[in-house]
Amino acid sequence: MSELPSDVALMWRLREGSRRGPKPSLTVEDITRSAIELADAEGLAAVSMARVAERLGNSTMALYRHVKSKDELLVLMSDAALERPEPMPEGIDWRTALTFWAEGVMVAIRKHRWYSKLPISGPPAGPNNLAWFDAALGALQDTGLPEEAKVGVVMGLMTYVHGEIRLSLDLAAGFADNPSAFSTYGAVLARVVDSRQLPALARVLDAGVFDTVGAFDEESDEDFDFGLQLYLDGVERFIERVCQGS
Amino acid sequence: MSELPSDVALMWRLREGSRRGPKPSLTVEDITRSAIELADAEGLAAVSMARVAERLGNSTMALYRHVKSKDELLVLMSDAALERPEPMPEGIDWRTALTFWAEGVMVAIRKHRWYSKLPISGPPAGPNNLAWFDAALGALQDTGLPEEAKVGVVMGLMTYVHGEIRLSLDLAAGFADNPSAFSTYGAVLARVVDSRQLPALARVLDAGVFDTVGAFDEESDEDFDFGLQLYLDGVERFIERVCQGS
DNA sequence: GCTAAATAGCGTAGCAGGTACGCTATATGC
DNA sequence: GCATATAGCGTACCTGCTACGCTATTTAGC
User: Fold this and answer.
1) Closest listed residue to residue A114, CA positions, set A69, A163, A81, A155
2) Distance, in angstroms, between A80 CA and closest chain B CA?
3) What does the alpha-carbon distance between residue A170 and residue A26 come to, in Å, rounded to a whole number?
4) On chain C, which bases lie within 7 A of the protein's CB atoms?
5) Residue percentage of chain B with pLDDT more than 90
6) What would the 3-class secondary structure string for A179-239 be?
7) For residue B153, what is the nearest residue in chain A, using CA coordinates?
8) Which of A5, A35, A155, B105 is deepest in the core (most CB within 10 A)?
9) DSSP at A118
10) What predicted TM-score, i.e. pTM, was given to this entire model?
11) Residue B160: which of A141, A163, A199 has the nearest Cβ?
């Protein structure tokens, strides 16, 4: 019966109603929602305690009655920003299900482009994060993998998916800041790459692979799907290997 | 002959020596090295322009003669912190080579635990980053994949590797901050997970998978290798498919 | 009801960090 | 030598997080 960490208690709304004192004019949910709206509109850098309070018509310090610190607020945002996953379609195989899941993650996070800039503070513990975790584990239900292997597969998948999203969002942000740095990427590399020192890269440049980077598109899921399918091919082989006896 | 971005020019040391004025008492390299040492010793949060300048026996504002902004300094750090990759052993197959490469990345980044907290500002453009990129492309030399496919494979691999490292370092940092939050992770989940709402996760808990999370170890490469091998299995299948004619 | 205790909101202030600006000293090109 | 470009730096401004203490408000316990 140890104490739960305060952020976990807040995310699961476990504070028991204490009675005495004035009625709160704010709730943690209001604060979190307001911070998320602000981040959506102006980016994570615009989220300061002062700006959030201003939006709510309160003073900066009022927030600290509901939230221990700004870091705690960021943790709350990171769970609240993810909506619940859509329920999986019935009767699909694990591979279709994980692809469906991965695209759901991508769609959910793309609604909040600051998401992947949040610091990771610990393993997933909020209700929405755990719901996504559960959904991915559920997709592996019929594979016969042992539970521990399912966790390994899902953790690797999460790492890949979050990493890919982070990369594409950060590149998109960089592109928005400074489009010319991208359209000239091929040219910059050509200026700087010595084919004696970086021969493999020079071959790629010669093949013109980076000449079209100017056509950079945040919404392009090509790279995302490509890497995802590679990983899932690996999972397929792993399942065959582990479950060959059954 | 357009201008190179100033951070790229700095990383490749392309500033041409201009003559007039006092001799600089500082170089960009000094500043970068000093910032890296400070981050190694006290974390990225300790890296302020003031602290870096103090280490160098200069005033804060002196740094701005060499570096446009703190963000630019971070970009310089992100390239300088990676050493050059060790040369690949001769005569190994692509899979051994990429595993060797991935472990090299992990070792290199683990020397600078703040690395994965850096914001991503654009595609790799510094000499060290490009050297690593080249090394991974070189590992696929004999596969017969077209250049564009190599790039896709390597990008996916980088995403996975960096993501996994980021996750493990951030979790390790969280663990150092607050070990009890980790040793009680299983217990927290048990308190909070309802087996009706999150059935797959509940099964994992029942199987006791999270009971040993207390034995959290930053150095454990198990998860890293597991996911890596899954991905490489996928690459293997991809190569077979694409190159079946040859 | 009445009182004591707990609590919400908030004003103030301290501290840290990034950086614009302008001054001074110094080295070089002409 | 003199004009000019540049290195270093002191000052000052702004933004951001948050500790502290005051006041007003509500309720538990009597």
Assistant:
1) A81
2) 16
3) 33
4) 4-12, 16-22, 25-29
5) 67
6) HHHHHCHHHHHHHHCCCCCCHHHHHHHHCCCCCCCCCCCCCCCHHHHHHHHHHHHHHHHHH
7) A227
8) A35
9) S
10) 0.91
11) A163
Rg of chain B, C-alpha, whole Å: 22
Answer whether A126's CB lies under 8 Å from B197's CB: no
Distances (CA, A) of B243 to B142, B143, B152, B236, B239: 11, 8, 16, 11, 6
State mean pLDDT over A194-199.
94
A160 and B155: CB-CB below 8 Å? no
Chain B residues close to A207, C-beta within 8 Å: 146-148
Chain B 128-157, CB below 8 Å of chain A: which residues?
Answer: 130-131, 133-135, 137-138, 140-141, 146-148, 150-153, 155-156
> Tell me: the pLDDT tens digits for A67-125?
999 999 999 999 999 999 999 999 999 999 999 999 999 999 999 999 999 988 888 89
B240 touches chain A (CB under 8 A): no
CA B60 – CA B54 distance, rounded (Å) = 7
